[in-house]
Amino acid sequence: MKCFLNINVFLLLAFSFCSCQSSPEEELLHDYIPYFADSLPSPLRNPLTTAGVNLGKILFFDTRLSGNNQVSCASCHLPSQAFADTVALSTHGISGKPLVRNTPTLLNLAWTQQGLFWDSGAKDIESLVFAPLRHADEMGQDLSQLPQKLRALPYYPTLFKKAFQQDTITNAMIARALAQYVRTLTFADSRYDEYAQGKIQFTHLELQGLQIFQKECATCHPPPLFTDNLFHNIGLDSMFINDEESMYLGRYRITLDSSDIGKFKTPTLRRWALTFPYMHDGRFKNINEVLFHYQANMKKNPYLDPLFIRADGKVGIPLTQEEINALLAFLQTL
C-alpha cells in the first residue's frame, strides 16, 4: 500500500534526524514554534524531543496501527486538508461505517487546555489518541496486542529506544510519541499573520472585515488561535436526542451538567477553507451556509449561549450582505 511505502521515507528521515550531531535539538524543535509563542507547550511527563516527534510522525502515517493494517491516523486527518478531511462523517475507518462526529483539524492543538474532541471527552492529546486507536469504527486495534505488533517490526524497537531510552514498547509510549508529533502541527503562516507582524497591509475590504470580525466573532474565535477552546451551544438544534451514547447532547455527555446540553467545542478558523464541511456533524457544506446559520437560521433553545440572544429577544448575528462580503474577505486571510 501507499502508506507502507511512505513509512520507508519517514524511517530514513527519522534515523538521520535522530543521529544528527550538527544541530542542537532546541534549534530543530524551534522550527515548529509560531511567532506568537515562546515555546510549544508539553506536559512534564512527555517533553518534546526530535526523536519522539519523528517516531510520532512515523506512527501517525503507519496503517499497521489499525486492526486490519489498512487505516492510519492520516486516513482521516489528511495533511492536504489541514489534518481534517472533506466529508461530513468519515467512512474511512476499519468498519466503513459513518462516524457520528466530523473530523476536526489537528492544527495548533498544543495550546488546547480545556479538553479535546468536540465534547471535551479527552483531557490531553496523550489520552485522545487511545479513542480512535481502539474504536471499532475507526482503527479497531486491540491495544493489548499493539506493542507486540510493533516490537515484531525490525525498526520500531530502535526508534522507541531513541525516543524514550527504554528497551521496550508500551501503549503509553505510543500515545506519547503520537502526541509529540501532533503538538508540532502548528500553523501561523497566513496573510493575517503577515499583517499581524506588520509585514503587509490589509486591503480596505479586509480591514472592514477585520472590524466586523472583532465585533461579532472574536469573542469565541480570538486570535491568534482563532478559537477560545471553550464549548458553546450555538443554536444548531432546538431539540436534543439522547442517542448514540449521548453523542448528540454535546458536552453534557461528559459533564452530565444540563447547562452543557448542545455545547460543542469552538473550532479554530485557521485554514478553514480546507476543513469543510463544518460543525460537529459536518452539516454545513461551505462557509456561506455557516454564515447564514448565524445570520438567520439559529434555533432558539433553553441551552443557547446568551452571547447570541439580542436585546429584543431575537437570536443570531444580524449582518448585511455588504458586511458578509467584508467578513469573507477577512476570513480568506486566515
From TrEMBL:
Amino acids binding heme c 2: 217, 220-221
Entries under SUPFAM superfamilies matching the protein: Cytochrome c
Binding-site list for heme c 1: 73, 76-77
Database matches in PROSITE patterns: CYTC (PS51007), PROKAR_LIPOPROTEIN (PS51257)
Domain of life of the organism encoding this protein: Bacteria
Post-translational modification: Binds 2 heme groups per subunit.
Swiss-Prot/TrEMBL keywords: Heme, Iron, Metal-binding, Oxidoreductase, Periplasm, Peroxidase, Signal
Keyword Oxidoreductase in record: yes
Residues of the Cytochrome c domain: 204-334
GO cellular component terms, semicolon-separated: periplasmic space
Keyword RNA-binding attached: no
Signal sequence interval, chain numbering: 1-20
Entry's cofactor comment: Binds 2 heme groups.
Cofactor: heme
GO molecular function, one term: heme binding
Protein name per the record: Cytochrome c peroxidase
Originating organism: Thermoflexibacter ruber
Lineage: Bacteria, Pseudomonadati, Bacteroidota, Cytophagia, Cytophagales
